[in-house]
Amino acid sequence: MRRYSRILGTGGYLPETILTNDQIAETVDTSDAWIIERTGIRERRIAGKHETASSMAEFAARQALESAEIEAGTIDLVIVATCTPDRVFPSTACLLQQRLNVRDCAAFDVQAACSGFIYALSIADQYVRAGSARRVLVVGSEVTSRIIDWSDRSTCILFGDGAGAVVLEAADEPGILSTHIHSDGQYQDLLYVPNRNGLRNSEEDDQFLKMQGNEVFKIAVNTLGRIVDETLAANNLQKSDIHWLVPHQANIRIIAATAKKLQMPMGRVVMTIEKQGNTSAASVPLALNEAIRDGRIQRGQMVLMEAFGGGFAWGSALIRY
Length: 321
Ligand code: COA
Fold this sequence. Notes:
Elements: E1 4-13, E2 17-20, H1 21-25, H2 32-39, E3 43-46, H3 53-68, E4 77-81, H4 92-99, E5 106-110, H5 116-130, E6 135-143, E7 161-171, E8 176-183, E9 191-192, E10 210-211, H6 213-234, E11 244-247, H7 252-261, H8 273-276, H9 283-293, E12 302-309, E13 313-320
Parallel strand pairs: 4-5, 4-6, 11-12
Antiparallel strand pairs: 1-7, 2-3, 6-7, 8-13, 9-10, 12-13
Helix pairs in contact: 3-4, 6-7
Bound molecules: coenzyme A.
């Protein structure tokens, strides 16, 4: 019998502090109207001083375990997608493992910037299909606020903090129908975060995110259009077979372009961008969790998740929830 993975439970966590566009406009030359029109973002959450990727991951993971109605001890693989880890090492997944008091199983991080969760989900799915894992905890958790230059109006308006989690379990039927991941390192200079210990493009390089927004925008729209086609073709499905689009939340105009490609009304697109901004690897699991919890996504429905980000790295996952 073939083996698949299916989503048993989901969880999410957002820090308490809300940062509005108006508050940002007090410190940089921008306005609420400009940000809403160009991005769809009204506010975002900012992690407290003592919060980290692993502490937020713990909240999201505990909620996912609770909704899956399983004990943490039954997890046999922990994967955390983050580009804002607590430490260089140990991995955030190991720190989460300790927080959850899970012993012995493998735990590692995946770094694929904003596509990290889709990458992590794809890896988890392969482990389950191969019979190497039965229950996997997959988390996206980010404190993007700590890699943002708060004096750069072209980037500081875009990002937010949070964590989302899913518990996968082996099943006889999908579940996850397919995942598709890609990357192309030739675009590395369009969107990156310098590393104090690594490659420096110039003496001015600090530790903050750099982005050529309009270039990223154009490539993101084209690439996401292609991955939608690839995912439908791989599963022999029509656009009309998809009930919900759960996109990475980078810009409402990028999301709208992908929905248009799918001929999907915006009412069937899960959007958190207005209140959360871009939470990088956390954005897809946070959106998925929200739409499952509020009853929009129902068991048996077809859900297409996609993401695009630094690398460039991009990907999709098609699930029958
Ligand atoms: N407030 C007001 N004006 C701003 C601004 C802000 N926060 N940020 C930039 N501008 C200005 C620019 O300086 C520029 O001014 P100029 O014409 O005088 O030079 C003008 O707005 C247009 O800039 P541009 O970068 O072309 O705007 P845009 O329509 O592309 O919107 C982004 C900028 C960042 C919102 C958009 O490019 C974007 O969302 N890009 C992709 C982001 C993304 O997906 N990133 C991560 C992938 S995970």
